[in-house]
Design brief:
With 195 residues, the chain is mostly helical. The protein has one domain. The protein is built from six helices and two strands. The longest helix is centred in the last third of the chain and has 37 residues.
Length: 195
């Protein structure tokens, strides 16, 4: 009589599932290098907003796992695949929009990104004209922020800065969620197909 234990028929699919999870983790790590956090609202920001955004994203991602527990049978394979296709298209559109808007609505200020506005204050417009005449060159937003020592609220209206900041934060959240949903639903489709 042999003392060997019977083979577990579920070990191989489980091993593949762990491989898929490792691949997803690697892909998310790579994606996180392309999706930078939103810029700071101001140079003196001591806000918890970036932490709130990260917590919100983590909580929503956690809730995405709930349907995966319930809808894991093979009959849901095509639905998960459809969700993954829709979410990758949405994620790529969001990523492009976020990067374009972030380029237009923020500037680099000595290693930090600061959100800028779209409505310039009169005093700042006059100073920009004066600096342009004095140095005989047009001043970029970055140079203007440097001239004001990073005080963006002295250049643009607070309302326009905050509007851009909150829109960038929303685009950031939607981008991360869409790309995460893509990876989760693709892995779930593969898992459902195996069941």
């Amino acid at each position: 009589m042999s003392s060997a234990l019977p083979l577990n028929n579920h070990a191989e699919p489980l091993g593949r599932w762990f491989s898929f999870a490792q691949i997803a983790t690697a892909i998310l790590s790579i994606l996180s290098t392309f999706v930078y956090e939103p810029p700071m609202l101001s140079i003196s920001e001591n806000s918890t907003t970036p932490w709130v955004i990260r917590f919100l994203v983590a909580a929503i991602i956690g809730f995405l796992y709930v349907p995966q527990i319930k809808y894991k049978d093979r009959i849901y394979y095509k639905k998960w695949l459809t969700i993954s296709i829709f979410s990758i298209v949405t994620g790529l559109v969001m990523l492009a929009s976020y990067n374009i808007k972030k380029t237009h609505w923020s500037v680099d200020y000595y290693g930090s990104r600061l959100c800028i506005g779209t409505e310039m204050l009169k005093q700042a417009q006059e100073n920009k004209k004066r600096l342009t005449a004095k140095y005989k060159k047009s001043f970029s937003d970055k140079e203007l922020v440097e001239a004001y020592a990073g005080e963006t609220s002295k250049i643009w209206t607070s309302r326009s800065i905050e509007k851009n900041y909150y829109l960038l934060s929303l685009l950031y959240i939607l981008t991360i969620l869409s790309l995460t949903l893509f990876l989760n639903s693709l892995l779930q489709a593969l898992r459902s197909y195996e069941n």
